[in-house]
What we know:
32% of the residues lie in helices and 25% in strands. It is α+β, with helices and mostly antiparallel strands. The strands form two sheets. A seven-stranded mixed beta sheet has the order 7-9-6-10-8-11-12, with helices on both faces. The longest helix is centred in the N-terminal third of the chain and has 18 residues, at 55-72. It starts with 5 loop residues before the first helix and ends in a 9-residue tail after the last strand. The chain binds adenosine-5'-diphosphate and magnesium ion.
Amino acid sequence: MKSEFEFIEKIRGRYSLGKIGDDCAVLPKDSKTDLVITTDLLVEEIDFRRDWMSPKFLGHKAMAVSLSDVAAMGAKPVWALLSIGIPEKIWKTGFVEKFYDGYFRLAQKFDVEIVGGDISKTPDKIVIDSIVAGEVKKGKAILRSGAQVGDLIVVSGELGGAAAGLKLLEKGIFYNDSAKIWQRKLLLKQLQPLPRIHAAQDLNENNSATSMIDLSDGLSSDLAHVCRESKVGAKIFADQIPFHKNLRAVAKSFDEKLNLALNGGEDYELLFTVNPKKKFHIENQLKNRHFFYIGDITANEEIIELIYDDKTEILQPKGFRHF
Ligand code: ADP
Ligand code: MG
């Protein structure tokens, strides 16, 4: 599969710069430490809608999506910068204060310090640029490119919840007192995702993961990114994919649930690969259903096989893409 950003790599190539394409850029900091850094753009009406999401949820999500990229490198987030373009009429509503409340609350949870940003006026819609930087031991950032043939493919939690939450919003079911408990659980997966910072750092501490990515676009697309960068293929088992507990209320058939889990996106769980000899490191999490084994890395470069009822189909990446 071609990356949306291949044209940028091509242009950069002309200037003999290094390769782009992981969840964060990795830069040398000092003799013992590398710096990782990521930026995420959130555009109103494209990445979020103000009538679906309170300012506080939006602030949380702006921090969460970037923290999740830092987690995907196995790094510890440390600093953040936040820039916002906002129309005057929204500025006057006190939006920004509530937004920062959600943003700072999540930053504080992971000891992340805000060190700057920028603010400007836009004609009509909000635009947010969230930058988070973190640290990792030199050479220890977990890249998308490290998966080896025979590695186990593992995810750090249940999938499809965020996509199901989005379905509810599309139907006009919002996060408020009249929403049922199961609806609120799904809505929170969409509106208030929790990045897997600690799980990612633990994986790095015991050298368990050979490659890692966070699930932002959707399993089918994000696994394709890992396969592309690692020059490998994958085989995953439909009956091993962990569905969010409340999916059944939104998706009736197994196929509908599978579609949400494979292609829905925004779950912000980790997808990583483990050398089978290191499986003992994650045995407890697998047993307690904190992690889920879903398949294996194969030598079929960039081919993802989905094993479903003893049949094998080729899985196409159908996760989120802007263009
Ligand atoms: P993620 O979903 O992990 O945030 P993206 O899909 O946004 O990652 O981006 C994939 C890769 O492409 C990242 O390494 C990112 O830095 C790079 N990238 C995306 N957009 C641009 C751009 N406009 N210029 C340079 N690199 C970009
Ligand atoms: Mg990512």
